Amino acid sequence: MADGEDAGYFGPGSASWAVHGDMATLVAGIRALLMQTLHPGAMAGVHDWSRYREDPLGRLSGTIRWLVTVTFADTALAQRESGRVAHFHDRVRGEYVDATGVRRAYSAGDPELLSWVHLVFTDAFLGCHTLWGGPIRGGADGYVREWATAGELIGVADPPRSAAELRDQLEAFRLAGVLKSDERVAEAVRFIRRPPLARGFLPAYRILFAGAVASLRPEYRRMLGLRRSPLPVVWATGRVLAIVRSFMGRASSSEAAALSRIRRLEADGKSIAPHSL
Q1: Is residue 213 part of a domain?
Q2: Is residue 217 domain-resident?
Q3: How many structural domains are present in the chain?
Q4: What are 103's strand-pairing partners?
Q5: CA of 29: how far to CAs of 32, 74, 201, 270, in Å?
Q6: What Å distances lie between residue 271 and 5, 43, 220, 237, 264, CA to CA?
Q7: Which residue range forms the structural domain that includes residue 65?
Q8: Is 73's pLDDT higher than 90?
Q9: Residue 275 falls inside a structural domain
Q10: CA torsion 22→81→1→146, rounded to 10°?
Q11: In sequence order, which residues have a C-beta less than 8 Å from that of residue 272 and are 6 or more positions away?
Q12: Nearest to 32 by CA among 116, 111, 137
């Protein structure tokens, strides 16, 4: 992150830096994984190709690596990392049974699957930051508009560019009957609820999981077979995140490295205008 010759796609003060540099991402990752399972094509890709049972954090860490790189790295590294993800998508192929019972072929690079994954991740990170994060430059619309750039980097054809478009595109999947809840979804939800983490992390993780569930819209909770806890889990999640912030500080290591790069560029007299703004 400290290397590179420009400020990247977003830069300091951007909505993407505010959202992805905040600890609310810990809850957003859980929420995004839960939502992703509801598309049977995306679920088939996870079931057929992911080693999530043997390496529960491996797949998530790969996704987070891409997200952090696109957010904080220079444009060249962000493009290379997006190319790596696209290359991996080319290998992920198979078949799944859709919500109407029809067997379909899939590739992780299919436009519909790319769109679904982009939507649920954008929605999760925005929704969790709204609950537990700070202010965003340009508000929700600013974040969705900025993060459309990341979607385009991995081949999303028509990413939303406002919070309203995000809600509409997400809801279109549900209203069209594309989403599906079955035993594969239930198995993945059970795993996400109780991953094989070290015992010392489990109490905090249970609170974050409950917070992620509480942040979901009721119709998606029902599809996932989940119920919102009657306990004040939104407040408790905020307390856990505050404790994490107190230990780790406000700025992530990636953000700190990106700021170091930008200071070097400024000292060299180079332009640091973000690429996409």
Answers
A1: yes
A2: yes
A3: 1
A4: 97
A5: 5, 23, 16, 35
A6: 9, 43, 45, 40, 11
A7: 15-262
A8: yes
A9: no
A10: -50
A11: 6, 7, 11, 262, 265, 266
A12: 116
Residues in CB range of 96: below 8 A, 6 or more apart: 40, 41, 43, 44, 103, 104, 106
Cα 194 from Cα 183, distance rounded (Å): 16
- Tokens 């997006």 locate to 82
CB 160 within 8 A of CB 169: yes
Give first-to-last CA distance, the chain, whole Å: 20
pLDDT in tens, 188-230: 999 999 988 889 999 999 999 999 999 999 999 999 999 999 9
CA distance 142 to 159: 13
Owner of token pair 């929704």: 127
Please give the model's pTM, rounded to 2 decimal places.
Answer: 0.90
What count of Cα atoms within 13 Å lies in the side-chain half-sphere of residue 43? 23
CB-CB contact of 206 with 192 (8 Å): no
105: three-class secondary structure by DSSP:
strand
Burial of 71 (0-12, 13-18, 19+ CB in 10 A): buried
Looking at the domain assignment, is residue 218 inside a domain?
yes
| 4 within 8 A of 73, measured Cβ to Cβ | yes
3-class SS letters over 196-220: CCCHHHHHHHHHHHHHHHHHCCHHH
Tens digit of each residue's pLDDT (9 = 90 or more) over 77-134? 999 999 888 777 777 788 888 988 999 988 878 899 999 999 999 999 999 999 999 9
Q: Per the structure block, which two tokens stand in for 88?
A: 């991996």
